[in-house]
Amino acid sequence: MDKPLHKAMPxxxxxxxxxxxxxxSFKEHDPNYKDGRVxxxxxxxxxxxxxxxxxxxxxxxxxxxxxxxxxxxxKRFETEVISxxxxxxxGTKDVCGVVTSGGTESCLMAVxxxxxxxxxxxxxxxxxxxxxxxxxxxxxxxxxYFGVKIRLxxxxxxxxxxxxxxxRMINRNTVMILGSAPEYPHGTxxxxxxxxxxxQKYKIPxxxxxxxxxxxxxxxxxxxxxxxxxxYRVPGVTSISAxxxxxxxxxxxxxxxxxxxxxxxxxxxFVYQDWPGGVFASSALLGTRPGGAYAAAWGVLQYxxxxxxxxxxxxxxxxxxxxxxxxxxxxxxxxxGNPVGPLFAYxxxxxxxxxxxxxxxxxxxxxxxxxxxxxSGLHAMVTAQHLKVVDQYLEDLNxxxxxxxxxxxLAGQGGAATYGMLAHVPLRGMVKKKVLEMYAEQYRAGGSExxxxxxxxxxxxxxxxxxxxxxxxxxxxxxxxx
Length: 482
Ligand SMILES: Cc1ncc(COP(=O)(O)O)c(C=O)c1O
Prior knowledge:
Layout: H1 16-26, H2 47-59, H3 72-88, E1 96-100, H4 103-122, E2 128-132, H5 137-146, E3 149-153, H6 163-169, E4 174-180, H7 192-201, E5 206-210, H8 217-222, E6 237-243, E7 255-259, H9 262-265, E8 270-272, E9 280-282, H10 291-328, E10 333-335, E11 343-348, H11 355-364, E12 370-372, E13 377-381, H12 390-406, H13 414-424, H14 428-441, H15 451-454, H16 462-479
Parallel strand pairs: 2-3, 2-4, 4-5, 5-6
Antiparallel strand pairs: 1-7, 6-7, 8-9, 10-11, 11-13, 12-13
Helix pairs in contact: 2-10, 3-10, 4-5, 10-12, 11-12, 11-13, 13-16, 14-16
This protein binds pyridoxal-5'-phosphate.
Pyridoxal-5'-phosphate (PLP) binds next to helix 4.
């Protein structure tokens, strides 16, 4: 029999303060990012900055940026945010763009733009895009959403894309090439200048995904750091995505997609002239666009100014340098690739040290550390806030390594077992199918009470545990002839 639905809306409304009290209580079991123990998802600095963002957001929480002529304030925010972005990305006055809801929307838009441009200008029917293996998962999403086939460029030893292979992938169906500054998994900046030369030679657009780097690399460079060129100074670069809600420290819901000129941007636009509701035009994916996010994005650029961002970049880089040096001092560990910006990953170079077991130990000591796969590693997205926890992190990392070395059986337990085995499941399609089923389960109106949180173990990822449990059970049945 179907279960009755839990009705989450009361028959009679409650007072505002009562609802707010409940909202606060819901936060109790969320990750506590304010003490610097979370290494992704949140870009928190301090309470003053947080309070400022909330105030700026609240002032425009009800305003809608759907129609740029209605709320002139919102269009002004957008124009000035794009202008500031073009400035730090070394663009000319021809650079144009849109404020989007986040990095994913910006990446999706680039794919739609270049697909439609290739259709229009070159009659390309079976569009393809060339992206390195380290491209953010948003690009794989864009491929599925917009029917653009991926040509995946393998990596060289230093984790940069193999440009010889990239060159061979270019054909008449290629609608765009992608490079990242930096890529998410290891923080390496792709060789954008060399990619730009190829892009120009074959007359193919080159997008730079600077969702992470866009609001920190420019300030690192202003501070005198050597950063390889990756922005509009590279002639072949035709567009850049840069998130303000990451290292711009804006409220969530603010990224930018900019293009070298309007010839590209117009393919991002949607216009429908025959709708009974009137002629409709839209610049990106969303219909209604959140005024609060734009106000906070504009506000935060004014709040920090270039000097403030340079200080944040300096603190972040100091934290990164100290963390990397501390990791490298541990003989069993190695930083992966050549990370330049605010993030890096490290792996075990000792057959006796399981890196995922080290991750479990770190989780046990109250850190929230992300895992990499192919190859296995631990990941750190470092913000200025982490400067104050560097020493504690490194002390705990040393302890974690010593514990795992002394107890090799930890490699076969908890999250280490799950992540390790999952990386070795040969049938990736099967993993995808099972994860998809379980993921969808969480979206029932009846609420399976987010199973993800339910059976949490030290891996912090029961979703993955379950996928694997299923696979292991299946393998066992198989091997026992069932
Ligand atoms: C390089 C890169 N591109 C795109 C994204 C997607 O951004 P968002 O999570 O804001 O959608 C991320 C997120 O971390 C990223 O690192």
